[in-house]
Amino acid sequence: HKLSGKVEELEYLIKRRTQSPYGQVEGQGVGPGGLGGSGGVQGYNSSNMEATGGGVKAVPPSIVPLAPLEEDETFAKTLPANASRVFSQALSKIREGNFQESLSSLQQLIQQGEKTEWSANVLFWLGVTYDGLGEDKNALRAYNDLIVQFPRHKRVPLALYRQSQNLQRLGDKKSANLLLRKIVGEYPDTSEGARAKEDLKKF
């Protein structure tokens, strides 16, 4: 098969896996620790702190990517007042490992229905939040919305890579393999491309 055919097949498989809307019962059977991957998300550890210029912040759970989190904590301050408050609150809860509360804030932003330049950031953190809750199917869908709606956004390679992890936790190694190959082919010079290349060696 040509790679393009495999990518089409992959898009179909991901679409099939993400049919249910966010928050429906389908994702509830997979709590943190289920399917062997999201279990690294034990949540907030009060002894895990890092000193910053503005005080002391919690070190986020391992499933939360730290560099994008710090970047968006700064970015959130540049948004319109209400959006800035809600998005900052969501990121704060993500840092603490309080994913149920971050989900509420992020859904509030999405329900406002505005597709703005920062909607991609909201969708990315929605995916991370579902990862934290162990809801891989909902995480897949959130990342997919980011990828489809904002194909040129800088978070796309990371969203694709996190989708490959969702698929592996769901036991769909075939789709995960195809997705990793897509990342290596389309984003070879990114850190995600390098990580995908390493992951492919394990298949």
TrEMBL record:
Top-level taxon of origin: Bacteria
Start and end residues of each stretch annotated as Disordered: 22-54
SUPFAM superfamilies documented for this protein: TPR-like
Biased composition annotated in UniProt, kind: Gly residues: 26-42
Gene3D superfamilies: Tetratricopeptide repeat domain
Protein name: Tetratricopeptide repeat protein
Biological classification of the source: Bacteria, Deltaproteobacteria, SAR324 cluster
